[in-house]
């Protein structure tokens, strides 16, 4: 096995190990960054929903008090306003969703489905918990959900809309009926605000960045492999091959082989100098014997 082959085998083994380690670490980092991006988006969307709820409660609903006595306007309900705002967003980004999933809602569209009900139940079991995050599979791919509990934290949250059908606004009962959204208790967790953000786009970006990184790394290795082989050939292999042929000639008594021109002071240069000195000493010794 030649020196070049040994060198290349070691180089390939080292690179393969480094490539595998780099792939593992970079993949984990890029996927973690992708998930962090999704979490930031979800947190921003949750903040927007809370802002819409607060604006509706403080600035919109008070302006409609007189009109609400004649007809129920769902637009005056903070939860309805936040949901509608996100429905507008879904016109361009249908993969994003926001829902105020409630176990016993006034508006049937807010009723929690099975997986949402599980989240609400976890909040009910752990009342100190303020948020929840997780990843679930959807028909369009993995989606991260970010949830916060909905608590009936003040009497105004219950009365008159969620107390009893008799105490509720007649216009609201006429619109949604007397069977839904009543019987809430003070400080009871009645639902959860749930933001769903797709992970497909950030993960696709992470995969593309990973492929670009690995392709670049492979290109760097190939370039380094070629350069190192060229350097090895010119600085090590070729001088050693010439020296080996010269040694064969000298060993058979042929001293017409020219001396090596020492052009460097590295190990190969020192070896060439030593070989020239050995050749001259051997040539003098042979002449003395003659």
Short recap of the structure:
This protein has 290 residues and is of the alpha+beta class. It contains eight helices and four strands; from the N terminus they run H-H-H-E-H-E-E-H-H-E-H-H. A hairpin with a 2-residue loop joins strand 2 and strand 3 (141-151).
What is the first-to-last residue Cα distance?
Answer: 40 Å
- Write down the Rg: 39 Å
What sequence of helices (H) and strands (E) makes up the elements?
A: HHHEHEEHHEHH
Strand order of the largest sheet: 1-4-3-2
The CATH class of the largest domain is Alpha Beta
How many DSSP helices? Answer: 8
Detail the poorly predicted runs.
none
The CATH topology of the largest domain comes to: Beta-Lactamase
Mean pLDDT across all residues, rounded?
Answer: 82
Percentage of residues in DSSP E strands: 5-15%
Care to describe what's here?
- The chain is α+β, with helices and mostly antiparallel strands and 290 residues long.
- The chain is built from eight helices and four strands, in the order αααβαββααβαα.
- The chain has helices at residues 3-60, 65-68, 78-89, 114-125, 155-158, 170-176, 200-251, 267-289, and strands at residues 97-102, 132-138, 141-151, 189-198.
- Strands 1-4-3-2 form a four-stranded antiparallel sheet.
- β2 (132-138) and β3 form a beta hairpin.
- The two termini are 40 Å apart.
């Amino acid at each position: 096995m030649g020196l070049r082959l040994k060198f290349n085998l070691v180089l390939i083994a080292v690179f393969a190990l480094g490539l595998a380690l780099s792939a593992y670490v970079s993949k984990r980092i890029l996927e973690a960054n992708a998930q962090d991006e999704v979490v930031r988006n979800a947190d921003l969307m949750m903040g927007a929903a809370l802002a819409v709820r607060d604006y509706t409660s403080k600035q919109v609903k008070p302006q409609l008090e007189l009109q609400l006595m004649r007809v129920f306007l769902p637009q005056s309900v903070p939860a309805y306003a936040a949901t509608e705002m996100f429905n507008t967003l879904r016109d361009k980004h249908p993969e994003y969703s926001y829902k105020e999933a409630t176990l016993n809602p006034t508006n049937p569209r807010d009723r929690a489905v099975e997986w949402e009900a599980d989240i609400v139940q976890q909040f009910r079991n752990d009342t100190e918990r303020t948020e929840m995050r997780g990843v679930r599979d959807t028909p369009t791919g993995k989606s991260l959900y970010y949830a916060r509990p909905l608590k009936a934290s003040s009497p105004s949250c219950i009365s008159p809309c969620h107390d009893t059908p008799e105490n509720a606004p007649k216009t609201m009962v006429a619109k949604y009926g007397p069977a839904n959204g009543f019987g809430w208790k003070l400080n009871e967790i009645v639902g959860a605000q749930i933001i769903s953000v797709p992970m497909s786009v950030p993960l696709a970006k992470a995969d593309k960045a990973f492929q670009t990184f690995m392709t670049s790394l492979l290109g760097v290795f190939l370039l380094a492999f070629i350069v190192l082989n060229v350097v090895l050939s010119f600085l090590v292999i070729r001088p050693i091959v010439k020296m080996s042929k010269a040694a064969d000639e000298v060993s058979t008594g042929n001293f017409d082989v020219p001396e090596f021109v020492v052009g460097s002071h590295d190990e190969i240069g020192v070896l060439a100098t030593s070989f020239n000195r050995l050749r001259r000493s051997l040539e003098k010794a042979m002449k003395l014997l003659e």
